[in-house]
Design brief:
Order of helices and strands: EHEEEEEHEHEHHE
Largest sheet: 7 strands, mixed
Helix content: 25-40%
Radius of gyration: 18 Å
Strand content: 15-25%
Shape: globular
Distance between the termini: 29 Å
Strand order of the largest sheet: 3-4-5-6-7-8-9
Length: 191
């Protein structure tokens, strides 16, 4: 299943890989898995050519997966009005070369810019939470492994940690249960 992009590269790529049952979810129409479980897929309001988010209702639990989506107040407030989100999987950090690989910046400037980027990212997570007030939050971010001299720039990536992002949001008055998982971990909704 994929979102309904204007230029649907996702659908084409899935079909080119040999998948026979490829379904495109039309906006505001649920894709039903069975009588009770379904999903909605939406193009992201920011970067609609490549990003989408999903709302899944499975076993009476409504989950939102925003993956790499950039926060849009308009879109997220609408989702908050339409759905009661039990479990939100939302980004707390976005990777990228800035400011770590910008050679025009001094070490001091990189340090300042990295901290600004980290706080901006945490604030995006906070905005997601404010828009739809999920009961549980699973903060996540794209991960990278860098070697050589790039690894030495890690302190300037402006990424932070999931725990810091949770603390930031809670210190701003938001109330939710955080789900922090390590590598090779899983979360059981029943226990």
């Amino acid at each position: 299943i994929c979102a309904s992009y204007i230029n649907n590269f996702t659908e084409r790529n899935l079909r080119s890989l040999g998948f026979q049952n490829v379904f495109v979810c039309e906006p505001d129409k649920p894709f039903k898995f069975n009588e009770h479980d379904y999903c909605y897929l939406y193009k992201a309001e920011i970067n609609p050519e490549i990003d989408s988010l999903g709302i899944f209702k499975v076993d009476n639990i409504t989950m939102l997966n925003a993956n790499d989506v950039v926060y849009s107040k308009n879109q997220m407030d609408e989702i908050g009005k339409k759905f009661e989100i039990d479990f939100a999987m939302i980004p707390y950090a976005y990777q990228g070369p800035y400011p770590a690989f910008y050679e025009n910046l001094t070490i001091e400037e990189k340090t300042i810019k990295a901290n600004e980027k980290k706080l901006k990212n945490y604030n995006q997570m906070l905005n997601f939470i404010k828009s739809f007030k999920p009961k549980k939050v699973f903060p996540f971010a794209a991960g990278c492994v860098y070697g050589g001299s790039k690894a030495l720039q890690y302190q300037f990536y402006g990424v932070g940690t999931a725990k810091e992002a949770v603390d930031y949001c809670k210190n701003k008055g938001e109330n939710f249960q955080e789900i922090l998982l390590g590598s090779n971990s899983e979360y059981d909704f029943e226990t």
